[in-house]
Amino acid sequence: MFLEQGIKPENHFWKYLIGSVFIITASFIGQIPFSVAVLYKSFVEKTGFPTDNDAALKVFEPNLTLFLVMISFAFAFAGIYFVVKYVHRQTLLSITTTRKKIDWNRIFFSFFLWSLFSVVSFFIMYSQAPKEYIWNFKLVPFLILVVIGTILIPIQTSTEEYVFRGYLMQGFANLARNRWFPLMMTSLIFGTMHILNPEVTKMGYVIMVYYIGTGLFLGVITLMDEGMELALGFHASNNLVGALLVTSDWSVFQTHSIFKDMSEPSAGADVILPVIIVYPLLLFIFSKKYNWSNWKEKLTGEIKETDIEAKEFLNSN
């Protein structure tokens, strides 16, 4: 019933288009501090203004860059709240979950499960090719990274989840009145959103399989669990643990992480395996823990008027 919470006669799809423009605009406003800081430093040091995003991200030391860039997501999240409340007349809870309140146990379970897998898999790769990694740990910069990352990275990942698995998924459900179209569209848009990442330039477009596959996985667990708590926990873990554990010169962000990957990037098994093996394994674990059933209907079924009426009746009582 998660998608049904956003389906209302007054929720025309054009409202979601306007809402998306508003959220993107809020994000651009949030990028002003970073742009002004880069412009100021370029002026003071009499260096040219960076001509591309990769160069701009290297103007400041990594912790300051991370802080300035993450601010934009706080603005975007405020934009989501405004649009949901005043354009669609919904609560933030209604695009989060079907439960009476957010289930933090689900968020923490998903977070720690993926954190455990990420750490274990990294050290397996490290043991196989230790010469490709160098020790990058510096206590004070790392502690600052922990503080910035712990506060701001969950805001970044939650903003993306609220946009794709919450707002847009319900928006496409209003348009199509089924479940498969919102699932596929949000997965494709989420994946292509990463197309400008430097990882794509280094590894080629085959890495889009990973990005789109990750979007599909997050959409599936949201629909099957009737809420996006598991997706919130997974996404926060993926970005935060990655930022703290290992960095590289070719990743979208360089951080004061514990290790630095010195290998030449290539799209191999590490791109395909999560999509075809790891994500299905996680789906199995989640399905057993939370007793998921009726997969075909929840992922591909039509949204019937009786379902919408039943949801409205439950909300009114």
TrEMBL record:
Sequence intervals crossing the membrane: 21-44, 64-87, 107-127, 139-159, 180-197, 203-223, 230-247, 267-286
Keyword annotations from UniProtKB, A to Z: Hydrolase, Membrane, Metalloprotease, Protease, Transmembrane, Transmembrane helix
Annotated GO MF terms: metallopeptidase activity
Superkingdom of this protein's organism: Bacteria
CAAX prenyl protease 2/Lysostaphin resistance protein A-like domain segment(s): 142-241
Matches recorded under InterPro entries: Rce1/LyrA-like_dom (IPR003675)
Keyword Transmembrane in annotation: yes
Listed name of the protein: CPBP family intramembrane metalloprotease
Species in which this protein is naturally found: Flavobacterium endoglycinae
